[in-house]
Specification:
The protein has 143 residues and is an alpha+beta fold. It has three helices and four strands; from the N terminus they run αβαβββα. The strands form two sheets. It has a two-stranded antiparallel ribbon. The radius of gyration is 22 Å and the shape is elongated. The two termini are 24 Å apart. The relative contact order is 0.21.
């Protein structure tokens, strides 16, 4: 595994974790949204990751033998569960029985996921920093 492929793997991880963090922040911001342009309450969203071949610069043999992979966002799934119904007869979005449909989500769970995403991003930054240091030390050897 070359140092440049390690950079590619870590950068793909950073990009994926950034996408995950963006969706988690959107979920937290809309935890109490009862009305959306699509109709109904906000629906929680999650990212789905998949492996992705890391970019390699080498011969055909090296590319065939390469097992280096990165990560990418394969898609975004939307929660299809029924919304949480809360009895609030004075609410403008209440139905005829006085119940309001709220998003089915747990803000505490999303905060823990956001911290996990942040730590994953930081781990990739640390890996890139370590590779950068290795490259600099290698260049110093040639002086």
């Amino acid at each position: 595994m070359s140092l440049f492929s390690a950079l590619s793997v870590s950068s793909s991880g950073m990009s994926a974790q950034r996408s995950r963090a963006e969706l988690l922040v959107e979920n937290l911001a809309n935890a109490d949204t009862t009305r959306t342009p699509e109709g109904g309450p906000y629906r929680r969203k999650d990212v789905v990751f998949t492996t992705d071949s890391a970019a390699q610069f080498g011969s055909m043999f090296e590319s065939e033998m390469n097992t280096n992979t990165g990560v990418r966002v394969a898609g975004v799934i939307t929660d299809q569960r029924d919304p949480e119904m809360r009895y609030m007869p004075g609410h403008p979005d209440a139905n005829k029985d006085g119940y309001v449909a709220y998003p089915r989500m747990n803000p505490s769970e999303d905060m823990v996921d956001l911290m996990d995403s942040s730590r994953g991003y930081e781990a990739n930054v640390a890996a890139i920093s370590a590779v950068k240091d290795m490259i600099n030390r290698s260049l110093d050897l040639f002086k």
